[in-house]
Amino acid sequence: MKTNPGRFFEDYKLGEVISHAVPRTVSGGERALYHALYPARGALYSSDEFARSCGLPQAPLDDLAAFHLVFGKTVPDISLNAVANLGYAEGRWLAPVYPGDTLAARSTVIGLKQNSNGKSGVVWVKTEGVNQHGEVVLSYVRWVMVRKRDLDAEAPMTTIPDLAPAVPASDLVVPEGLDFTGYDFSLAGEPHRWGDYEPGERIDHVDGVTVEEAEHMLATRLWQNTAKVHFDATFRPDGQRLIYGGHVISMARALSFNGLANAQMVVALNGGAHANPCFSGTTVKAWSEVLDRAETAAPGVGALRLRLVATSGGEPFTLKGEGGKYLPHVLLDLDYWVLVPR
What distance in Å separates the CA atoms of residue 59 and residue 161, rounded to the nearest whole number? Predict the structure, then answer.
């Protein structure tokens, strides 16, 4: 048998290192397609000249585009037979990705737990994206619910990794040379500095975008995400293709420009949950909450810890109901760090 049916839960071994195919060289095409798919307007990623004025050699690939590229590499080995992608933790962007860089990915299995129904289990992996120089440009942990092939297969010993609730501010990596002391607020689109945001503040990003089938299919193909739930309409009993969760993340991040235009670089992913499924025809809206602030050693650069919530409607700033369960209109709950001019 030469075709690959994908791994099932019983195929994973604790400590196993999986090298993912196929390395990919990034071009300006990825940036153009990313900006076509999402209303992304971050100045640092749109303009080489703006990026150079901030101490970088040119505009990097959007941080989430780099994340999607690496994530897509892992899908054939990690989540081809997934029921759902459950969450993220300990994500860190360690170096910018520029056109011309070649990225590869590898994952280490760090946790396994069979579900009580015996039909599936949860797999935790730590994934690293590596450039052509062998440098790790980003790393993150995610956990996925995966079907079993053989329901009688012996359950592995339960191992649940001890994951940090958040990346400490002291561990944030600021790109070499980044300098916001000469930051042009008029070109960036908003006047709001690091000190203008207070922990506890909430921002309704106002705008909404309706997700179309064609664009989400283009996104999954662009990132080479081969998960069956996104491509194959016969894979789900309801006959619907599930919108890739990363598509919702990028849509919400792009919508957050209205109120957070100066949140220029994503440097850490503390945690995330795809709270409810998203399908074609859903109108995505977003709101944010400022969770924390931190200084950095880079000139003119501060860090904000944000909660980004994507919804399909409902009242802004509503998240969970009784018992702590996400409300039905909540699509995404993401906790992350960004770099902002001071």
Answer: 36
| Maximum Cα–Cα distance across the chain | 63
For 230-272, the pLDDT digits (tens) are: 888 898 889 888 899 999 999 999 999 999 999 999 999 999 9
Distance from C-alpha of 211 to C-alpha of 114, rounded to nearest angstrom: 34
Q: Kindly report the pTM of this predicted structure.
A: 0.95
Residues 289 and 198: their CA atoms lie apart, in Å, by 9
